[in-house]
Amino acid sequence: MSMTKLIVGNWKMNGLLADSKARAQQLGSAVAATKDAAFEMVLCPPATMIGAVVDVLAGSSVQCGGQDCHTEPSGAYTGNISAAMLKDIGCTHVIVGHSERRQYHAETSSLIAAKAAAAHAAGLVAIICVGETDAERSAGEADSVVAAQLAESIPLSATSENTAVAYEPVWAIGTGKTASADDIRQMHAHIRAKVSEKVTSGGAQIKLLYGGSVKAANAAEILHIAHVDGVLVGGASLAADDFIAIAKASAG
Ligand code: PGA
Predict the structure, then answer these.
(1) Which of 70, 107, 168, 188 is catalytic?
(2) Degrees (nearest 5) of the Cα angle 95, 155, 233?
(3) CB-based burial of residue 105 (10 Å sphere; 0-12 exposed, 13-18 middle, 19+ buried)?
(4) Is the Cβ atom of 214 under 6 angstroms away from ligand 1?
(5) How far apart are CA 62 and CA 209, in angstroms?
(6) In sequence order, what are the residues at sequence separation of 6 or more whose Cβ sits closer than 8 angstroms to the Cβ of residue 35?
(7) Which parts of 158-239 fold into alpha helices (H)?
(8) Predicted confidence (pLDDT) per residue in 212-251, tens digit
(9) By percentage, how much of the chain surpasses pLDDT 70?
(10) How far is residue 36's CA from residue 32's CA, in Å, rounded to a whole number?
(11) What pTM value is reported for the model?
C-alpha cells in the first residue's frame, strides 16, 4: 500500500472567483503549515476558476486538476476543453468518467478511455472514475459492473505514474450515504486485482481512491482501509476546514 495518500477535491459547478480564490488560499496555507504531511492534495475547480486557483497556489505543494477533458488536443469542438489546455494553464491532474459525466452527458467507458489517453498524452494524471448504481448493487452486480468499467475505461497508456482510479458508488455521491468499511474493503481488493491484471506497468501501485460522501468524520476510517490510497471528495471539499481535516486524517 502506498504511503502518501492522494486527496482530491472536486468542486463540481460551485463557487465564483472570490470564494474559490479564498478557499484555495486557505488550503495552501494550511497544507504549508502541516508538518510531515502524509498526503498530496489536488483541487479541481470549475474550468473558469482554474487559472486563478493555480496563481493562488503558486509556490504551494497543492496541485490543480480539471473535472473533464476532450479526447482531442484541439479542434472544432465548441464548448470543450482539451487536456493540453489544462496542462497549459497549470493543471497536473484531470478527472475523467465521473458518474455525473456518465449520467448527464452519456459518456461511455470507451470515450472515457480516450479521454484518459488524451490526458496521458498531455502529461496529466488521469483520475478515472468507476462505480455501480443502487440498482446494480441491489441486483448483486456491483463487482461485474465495476470490472467492466475498469476493463473498458483504462487505456493502454496507463501506468502507476499517470493514472489513479476512483471508486465512487453512484448511490453514495452527494447523498450522505457512505459505503460500509466492509464494502469498500471488498471492492478495493477487487479493483486492485483487476487493475493489476490490466495495467502491466505498475498496476499494483496505481492509487485507488474512494469517493462518495467522504467527510471529516469518516475520513480516517476510510483512508485506513487496505487498498484505499486516497479520497475523491465533492461536497466536503467546498469547506476548507473540513477538507483539510480530511487530508490530515491520512496520518497514522
Ligand atoms: P460527494 O461527491 O463527496 O459530495 O459525495 C463525491 C464526488 O462526486 O466526487
Answers:
(1) 168
(2) 20
(3) exposed
(4) yes
(5) 17
(6) none
(7) 181-198, 216-223
(8) 999 999 999 999 999 999 999 999 999 999 999 999 999 9
(9) 99
(10) 10
(11) 0.97
What number does the ligand 1 atom closest to the CA of 12 have? Answer: 8
Burial class (CB in 10 A: 0-12, 13-18, 19+), 208: buried
Please tell me the distance from the alpha carbon of residue 183 to that of residue 158, in angstroms, as a whole number. 26
CA distances for 145 relative to 140, 152, 178, angstroms: 10, 11, 19
Question: Buried b / exposed e across 8-40, counting CB within 10 Å, b at 16+?
Answer: bbbbbeebeeeebbebbebbbebbeebeebbbb
Q: Which three cell numbers stand for residue 66?
A: 480539471
Which cell numbers in the block locate residue 8?
A: 482530491
Distance (Å, rounded) from C-alpha 130 to C-alpha 108?
A: 11
Longest dimension (CA), the chain: 49
What are residue 166's DSSP bridge partners? 129, 209
Q: For ligand 1, atom 6, name the residue with the nearest CA.
A: 234
Quick one: angle between helices 142-153 and 109-122, nearest 10?
Answer: 40
186, 142 Cβ separation under 8 angstroms? no
Residue 95 DSSP SS3: strand
